[in-house]
Amino acid sequence: MAEMVQSVTSLPLVKRYIATHDANGKSVYVDTPPQQYFPVPDVGGLARSFSVSSVPAKLENDEDVKAYLGKEGPTSWTSSSIVTPGGVNLLIVDLAPGGTSVMHRTVSIDFSVCVIGEIEHELDGGEKVLLRPGDHIVQRGTMHRWHNASKTEPARFIATTVSCLPFDIAGKQLEEIHLPRDPQEKL
């Protein structure tokens, strides 16, 4: 696992606040570690802002918060997985200037919102859309990649990934895949 860092671009640091209840039932904020990113060379980085292991989520006795704040486990803030099987993740993705992810697919439905910069979303058939702040993608197990359209400024999107039940596409069961980067590739 790559060393986690607090920032991977020059964008402002992200603050995460988790609201829960104290022993008397009063709403309170929980102390959390600083947001940490898993750097992705030549792309930027990914930070897990929160995660739950199931839907509906188990909130009683702060089960979800304890699992997230733990150092290990599928919903831990230290996990670099994009999707938690059976669960939901809230992810912050920062893209370096010109940064491009590999073409990939996850077994999930994702709701991704561009919040800073302009981000190109490309499908495996070559179709592309340009996302500006507020624009968003509803992604249903599709092969795709992300590309920061700016060569000088970083970009950020926020994604909620929701694990989905297995299903077939063109007679083949959907599976997570990350294609290798083609050294000749140009966007």
From TrEMBL:
Top-level taxon of origin: Eukaryota
Residues that span the membrane, as ranges: none
Question: Which intervals hold domain Cupin type-2?
Answer: 92-159
Question: Which residue windows are coiled coil?
Answer: none
Under the heading PANTHER family, the entry gives: CUPIN 2 CONSERVED BARREL DOMAIN-CONTAINING PROTEIN, SLR2101 PROTEIN
**Protein name per its UniProtKB record:** Cupin type-2 domain-containing protein
Q: Name its species.
A: Cladophialophora psammophila CBS 110553
